[in-house]
Write a structure and sequence with these properties.
It is built from 13 helices and 13 strands. It is α/β, with parallel strands linked by helices. Strands 2-8-7-6-5-3-4 form a 7-stranded mixed sheet, with helices on both faces. Strands 9-10-13-12 form a 4-stranded antiparallel sheet. A two-stranded parallel sheet has the order 1-11. About 50% of the residues are buried.
C-alpha cells in the first residue's frame, strides 16, 4: 500500500471538508440544507470580469506561458487600486506579484523564507493555510491568542513576549478584517506590530482578503503605516471582492526584497496565472460599482441573520467581512449537528462552521463559537432566519 507522507497525514482532512461531510449526511436523510458553512460566494462573478476573460482569451491566444509575476498591465492595475483605495504607492516593477488567489499565496509564502525548524507566529483561530503552509515548508507554528475578553484582537504585549523568547520566528501572520471573528484591526495595532517586526527582524504577512467587505468604516491595510516595507507583505484577492473564487486570482504587495524572493519561489511552483484570468482581474480592479452592490447585498443578509440571532438570545460579532461569529452554549460541533436538522418536521437544516475546526492550535475556547458565512441567497437567508427564530 502506498502511504502518504507524515505531513499529508497530518492535514489529510481539511477542516471545511469535514463540514461538507456532515452536510452530506443530513442531505442524504432528506434535509434541505441552507449552507452558511464554507465562505464561497454563490452570487455571479462580476460581469466585467467575464468580458475580460473573453477578450483576454483572444488577445493572448498565441502568448504562450503567462508571466510568473503577472502581466505588466495586471501589476499596474493592482498598483492603481492600492493607490486609490489605501493611498499607498507600490511599484509594479518590484513591489507587486500575482498570485492564484489568497489560499495559494498564503500557503506557498513560507517556502521562500523558512529554513528547517524556523517558526511562524499566527493566530490561534484563523485561516488553516497559515498553519499548513508553515508545516509543509518545514517550519513550526507558534500561536498568539484570539480571545473574546480582548475582542479577539491580538495582544501586542503577548506578541512581544513570544518574540523575545523565540528567536527563530521569521514570519508573523495577521488578518484584518478577521476570518472568522469579523473584527477589524485598529491603526494603533498596525503601528505597534511594525515596530515589533523591525525590532525582532520578522516579516509581517498581512492577509487582507476581506478589506472590501465592510459596513461603514473602511478597514486599513498595513501598507498605510510605513514608508519602508522591508518587513511587510500584504495579500489581496478578488475572490470575495468580485465573487471571483472560481477564477483564482490575487496579488501580493510589499518590500522589494520580500517580493523578489517570493517571485523566485513562484518560478519553481507554477507557470503563472492564465493571461485571460489576469485580463479579467484588470477589469475588476478598475470597477468599484459592483463592489458597492456586493456590500449592500451582504449588509441585507447580515441584518436578517443578526436580527434572528438577537431574538434567539445569542451573542455575536459582525463587524466586517461576510461572516458572523456566534457564541453558543456547549460544543460547537454538537451545535452544528443540531443546526443541520433544525426543523425535523419540515426537513430543513442550516450548515455552519464549528469554531473548533478553525482553531489552528486546538484551542478549547474556540469550541464555544460557530461561524456563519453569508453566502446563501436572500430567499434562503430569510428562511434560515425564521428557522433560527422558531427553533433555537
Amino acid at each position: 500500500m502506498v502511504e502518504p507522507s507524515s505531513k499529508m497525514k497530518e492535514f489529510a482532512t481539511y477542516a471545511f471538508a469535514e463540514v461538507d461531510k456532515a452536510k452530506d449526511v443530513a442531505a442524504k436523510n432528506g434535509f434541505k440544507i441552507i449552507d452558511f458553512g464554507v465562505g464561497d460566494p454563490t452570487d455571479p462573478l462580476y460581469e466585467g470580469a467575464i468580458k475580460g476573460i473573453q477578450q483576454g482569451a483572444k488577445k493572448n491566444a498565441e502568448s504562450g506561458y503567462p508571466s510568473y509575476i503577472g502581466l505588466k498591465e495586471f501589476r499596474e492595475a493592482a498598483a492603481a487600486w492600492l493607490r486609490k483605495r489605501f493611498g499607498v504607492n507600490a511599484s509594479p516593477e518590484n513591489q507587486i506579484t500575482s498570485t492564484a488567489g489568497s489560499k495559494e499565496g498564503v500557503f506557498h509564502f513560507p517556502f521562500a523564507f523558512l529554513n528547517p525548524n524556523d517558526c511562524v507566529l499566527m493566530p490561534s483561530i484563523g485561516y488553516p493555510p497559515y498553519k499548513a503552509g508553515t508545516v509543509f515548508a518545514g517550519g513550526i507554528p507558534v500561536y498568539y491568542e484570539m480571545k473574546e475578553e480582548n475582542n479577539f484582537l491580538p495582544d501586542i504585549n503577548e506578541l512581544e513576549n513570544i518574540l523575545k523568547k523565540n528567536k527563530k520566528i521569521k514570519i508573523i501572520w495577521i488578518n484584518s478584517p478577521q476570518n472568522p471573528t469579523t473584527v477589524v484591526t485598529p491603526p494603533k495595532f498596525f503601528e505597534s506590530i511594525i515596530e515589533l517586526a523591525e525590532k525582532y527582524d520578522a516579516i509581517i504577512a498581512s492577509d487582507e482578503a476581506y478589506t472590501e467587505m465592510f459596513i461603514k468604516e473602511k478597514p486599513h491595510s498595513i501598507l498605510e503605516f510605513s514608508d519602508d516595507w522591508k518587513n511587510i507583505i500584504a495579500f489581496h484577492s478578488l475572490s470575495k471582492r468580485s465573487n471571483a473564487t472560481g477564477i483564482r486570482i490575487g496579488f501580493a504587495a510589499g518590500g522589494q526584497e520580500i517580493i523578489k524572493n517570493y517571485r523566485n519561489l513562484r518560478t519553481q511552483v507554477d507557470s503563472g496565472v492564465a493571461n485571460a484570468i489576469q485580463e479579467a482581474a484588470i477589469e475588476a480592479w478598475k470597477d468599484e460599482l459592483h463592489v458597492q452592490k456586493m456590500r449592500k447585498m451582504y449588509d441585507e443578509r447580515r441584518d436578517i441573520i443578526t436580527s434572528a440571532l438577537k431574538k434567539a438570545g445569542l451573542k455575536y460579532w459582525a463587524e466586517a467581512a461576510f461572516y458572523i461569529w456566534v457564541k453558543i452554549n456547549g460544543s460547537s460541533v454538537e451545535f452544528a449537528k443540531k443546526m443541520l436538522q433544525l426543523d425535523a418536521k419540515k426537513k430543513i437544516g442550516i450548515n455552519v462552521t464549528p469554531g473548533k475546526f478553525l482553531a489552528l492550535n486546538n484551542a478549547a475556547y474556540a469550541d464555544k463559537y460557530v461561524r456563519f458565512a453569508l453566502v446563501p441567497s436572500l430567499q434562503d437567508t430569510k428562511l434560515a432566519a425564521e428557522l433560527i427564530k422558531n427553533n433555537l
